[in-house]
Amino acid sequence: MKKVLFFICFSCLLFGCKKQEKDAAEIVGKTAKIYYDYLLHDDYAAFVDGSFRPDSIPSSYREQLIDNAKMFIAQQNKEHQGIKEITIRSATIDTLHHTGNAFLMFSYGDKTKEQVIVPMVERGGVWYMR
User: Which domain covers residue 35, as residue numbers?
Assistant: First the structure.
């Protein structure tokens, strides 16, 4: 009886931990998608602010990053008739190092698709793009 009870408790603990890791990975994927949705909706500043920087950056450099995001979208519009949809394919997480990877699928206007890996890092309880 003790062995059965021990096995049940151990199984619950094991499966309970797996669920928490899956939920955390899901957060990584959703956060990356939110940042790229900012990009699709022309909120370039919010997209740039989603990138992790250990220190503050000069406003001129921030403006350059915003211009780069605009150029990226312009290039996608020219080459693929724009990004029409972004979906989350999967996400992984390394809880020890507070990092993760989000696997996003870009669906373009020309009907092509591309999987993009977005490396993420957690700082202060917030997930940022690396």
Answer: 17-129
- Phi then psi dihedrals of residue 61, to 5 deg: -70, -40
What CA–CA distance (Å, rounded) separates 95 from 58?
A: 32
61 belongs to a structural domain: yes
Number of domains in the chain: 1
H/E stretch holding 127 reads: strand 126-129
Tokens at 82, concatenated? 């724009």
- Identify the pLDDT of residue 13: 44
Whether the CB-CB separation of 105 and 87 falls below 8 Å is answered with yes
- Here the CATH number for the domain that contains residue 74 is 3.10.450.50
Would 82 be classed as within a structural domain?
A: yes
The closest alpha carbon to 29, from 97, 86, 82, belongs to: 86
Q: Where is 16: in which H helix or E strand?
A: helix 2-40
Cβ contact 24:98 at 8 Å: no
7 within some domain: no
With a cut of 70, which residues of the chain have pLDDT below it? 1-22
